[in-house]
């Protein structure tokens, strides 16, 4: 176990032994103790965004995408129209969800190194009054770019429209305050910055919007209105819960709070990101994004411009030294990605940089 590589991937990611040990208990899904565990998790999640007055936390079985699909399917009425803001693969996925669900939508796409701006959204909303909802990726994990959520949210509010935020890879590490940022739904999951294991997502849904969403959903299992109503009535999940995942998340949240909550988690990831960027720059590897729009979550690097470089070979060699990297997700340029999140600190990031340097020397791609 101790020889297991460190995952420098943005979920699943490296978890603590305590979090993994929390999964050694089997829970009855109808049991009061497990219901309390779920309630405690939801309460702690809401506290991270200061959202208990305005929003419900609705957990959902499955990976993060399940929760995103459920949020759109439940909250966007069948005659609604979604403006999807895209600058990477997860934004594309939002559009695909709208398409599959049969919701009317339009897209606005910027380059993968260009944040969407509030001015863009202002113009787009002014031009199309049919739009009811705007869907935005906070940190676009396919590059690591940060979109200016607070400014965009204010513009959407000014137009009287509703915002759905995929904050999957930022929630818990980057500050989002529900009392200051108006949104109808914000979606995240267990296995990202909270450092739990993958297996459940959750949606912070505005109470009034969720109450009004009865009958919108196209799907039984993905109906957040139903999921919430059943949980409010019984304390139980509607269908078999991912019991071990909930227990692990509960334990991960305890460690999150012990570490110092969001400010401490943010600081550790920012330190990780800086160590990574400085270290890679020192061996001549360039990051894809300029620093101003780089979120401290995941970094995209240009692949070395050398015919002896092959990602698969590079990946296997770095893995043998104890680190799992992530392939690039860009179509135009060859890149690879390194996550800054999970149970890892600046020492671990430096060790990863050292491993990368050593491997590139072995591959005769670097001669330093
Ligand atoms: C991880 C992630 C998701 C969810 O992806 P899954 O593969 O379903 O876990 C959605 N959006 C963003 C921005 C993500 O980083």
Shape: globular
Kindly identify the CATH topology of the largest domain. Aspartate Aminotransferase, domain 2
- Tally of separate helices: 12
Total strands: 14
Question: What number of structural domains do the residues give?
Answer: 2
List cofactors, ions and other ligands.
Answer: pyridoxal-5'-phosphate
Mean of pLDDT: 97
> How is the main sheet built?
7 strands, mixed
Return the CATH architecture of the largest domain.
3-Layer(aba) Sandwich
Tell me what portion of residues adopts beta-strand conformation.
15-25%
Name of the CATH class of the largest domain: Alpha Beta
Give the helix/strand class.
alpha/beta
Approximate helicity band: 40-55%
Query: CATH-wise, what's the superfamily of the largest domain?
Result: Type I PLP-dependent aspartate aminotransferase-like (Major domain)
Low-pLDDT ranges: none
For the largest sheet, list the strands in their spatial order.
Answer: 2-10-9-8-5-3-4
**C-alpha Rg (nearest Å):** 21 Å
What are the secondary-structure elements, in order, as H or E?
EHHEHEHEHEEEHEEEHHHHEHEEEH
Question: What is the CA-CA span between the terminal residues?
Answer: 33 Å
How is this structure best described in words?
With 368 residues, the protein is α/β, with parallel strands linked by helices. It folds into two domains: 6-10 and 262-362, Alpha-Beta Complex (Aspartate Aminotransferase, domain 1), CATH 3.90.1150; 17-257, Type I PLP-dependent aspartate aminotransferase-like (Major domain) (Aspartate Aminotransferase, domain 2). The chain is 40% helix and 17% strand. It is built from twelve helices and 14 strands. It has helices at 17-21, 32-48, 64-75, 89-101, 118-127, 149-158, 207-211, 224-234, 243-259, 261-282, 311-320, 346-362, and strands spanning 6-7, 55-61, 81-86, 104-109, 133-137, 139-140, 145-146, 162-166, 185-189, 200-206, 298-302, 323-324, 326-327, 335-339. The strands form four sheets. A seven-stranded mixed β-sheet has the order 2-10-9-8-5-3-4, sandwiched between helices. A three-stranded antiparallel β-sheet has the order 11-14-13, covered by helices on one side. Strand 6 (139-140) and strand 7 (145-146) form a beta hairpin. The longest helix has 22 residues, at 261-282. The model has no long low-confidence stretch (mean pLDDT 97). The protein binds pyridoxal-5'-phosphate.
